[in-house]
Amino acid sequence: MRLTKIYTRSGDGGKTRLAGGQEVWKDSLRVEAYGTVDELNSAIGVVRAFHGEVASGEAAMRFEQDLRWLQNKLFDIGGLLATMPGQRFKDMPEISDQDVTRLEHCIDACQQDLAPLKEFILPGGGKVSAPMHQARTVCRRAERECIRLSRQEDVDARIIKFLNRLSDTLFVWARWVAKKQGEPEFLWERQSTG
What we know:
Blueprint: E1 15-17, E2 23-25, H1 29-54, H2 58-81, H3 97-111, H4 129-150, H5 157-180
């Protein structure tokens, strides 16, 4: 793909075109879904930028590779969501069961370094874990929007499964990064009503 002109003026009236050329409103569920996946991808980009400033070593390099793989997968999901159901194009990406399994392996590997949770964690922490928690919440919204879309139009169930597993992965990564960086985790302190 080669973009020679960024603005086209064609979207000034509140509509945009999907991958197959169909014109839709910019606030349609399909556009909301792939727009939120794009927002998630940008949030992961922030995580990568901060991670590059504070981490080094073999584990940090593996983590960077996982984040880069993830960003490419999110672009794949965005492209799939920007395509009307039933349409196929040459070299169209896909989300596979193996992609979901890769996320599960990431979770399992990180969990080996973490103590079991005894309470909810307040989102926050350091330069990498805080934006990772934010990315997790954007991921949950992307998942909800894809579910909402799937109730009206066909959405590959593997996309929803991937986003569901990804939000879990982002949570575990936030905890793992906090531990690797020596950052504290702050637990939810329940207020008594007595």
